[in-house]
């Protein structure tokens, strides 16, 4: 079931064609990466697909319901989301808990179930022990992991991620990719992630969409279906699954 489907999208910036004829879709239960050279308008494509900026042409269909028949929830993690300054007042736990508010309504009380999910989300990114620290006091990589935990806490059906592992070390990046694979394959989430680490994430992702262009033409994309499914399955059998999502 496609959670997002884009057909013939084009985007123009200051009368300059940037994207042309881009088509792709992301299904429930699928972890898809989006790659391209620097300047390949990857972030622009994501923003246009979500309606944050208006494309010139194209058809965009976002599912209204998830596979369980409930309202589809989308979480978008843009670049530089974790640039909190030293004076940011919230603690780590408070910030992640705020991810549960839209789910319950802004004026409803946080329940014990919400707090359990917040703890689970923070533990999944290795930040539970830092829960009482102020966001502004964390390192860049720690802030990024907390921002990801908040995204987990909101329990979306569709993850849209723009370079989410910026500032993370190799171990943290690998663990994050494994969590995204788990979310897609065990909980039926759909994941679209912009990345420069195509080689590192290859063992975890199901498919790659790559933006390309010929000289003096706008960026277009084609979908690359990886043929390493057996290798991926073998790789993951040696990693114990960790429950993160699926409340």
From TrEMBL:
The keyword Secreted does not apply. InterPro entries: AAA+_ATPase, ABC_transporter-like_ATP-bd, ABC_transporter-like_CS, Metal_Ion_Import_ABC, P-loop_NTPase. GO terms for molecular function: ATP binding; ATP hydrolysis activity. SMART domains: AAA. Residues 4-238 form the ABC transporter domain. It holds the Pfam family ABC_tran. Gene3D superfamilies: P-loop containing nucleotide triphosphate hydrolases. Part of the ATP-driven transport system AdcABC for zinc. Required for transformability. Belongs to the ABC transporter superfamily. This is Zinc transport system ATP-binding protein AdcC. It comes from Pseudolactococcus plantarum.
């Amino acid at each position: 079931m496609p959670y997002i489907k884009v057909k013939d999208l084009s985007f123009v910036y200051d009368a300059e064609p940037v994207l042309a004829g881009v088509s792709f879709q992301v299904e429930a239960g699928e972890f898809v990466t989006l790659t391209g050279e620097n300047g390949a308008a990857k972030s622009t494509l994501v923003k246009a697909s979500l309606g944050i900026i208006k494309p010139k042409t194209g058809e965009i269909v976002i599912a209204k319901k998830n596979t369980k028949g409930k309202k589809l929830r989308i979480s978008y993690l843009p670049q530089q989301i974790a640039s909190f300054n030293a004076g940011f007042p919230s603690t780590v736990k408070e910030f992640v808990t705020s991810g549960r508010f839209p789910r319950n309504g802004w004026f409803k009380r946080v329940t014990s179930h919400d707090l359990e999910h917040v703890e689970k989300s923070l533990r999944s990114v290795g930040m539970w022990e830092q829960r009482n620290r102020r966001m502004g006091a964390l390192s860049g990589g720690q802030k990024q992991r907390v921002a990801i935990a908040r995204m987990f806490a909101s329990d979306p059906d569709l993850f849209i991620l723009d370079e989410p592992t910026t500032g993370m070390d190799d171990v943290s990046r690998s663990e994050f990719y494994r969590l995204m694979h788990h979310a897609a394959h065990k909980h039926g989430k759909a994941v679209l992630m912009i990345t420069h680490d195509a080689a590192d994430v290859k063992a975890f992702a199901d498919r790659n969409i790559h933006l390309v262009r010929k000289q003096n033409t706008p960026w277009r994309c084609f979908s690359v279906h990886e043929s390493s499914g057996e290798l991926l399955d073998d790789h993951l059998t040696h990693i114990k699954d960790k429950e993160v999502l699926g409340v």
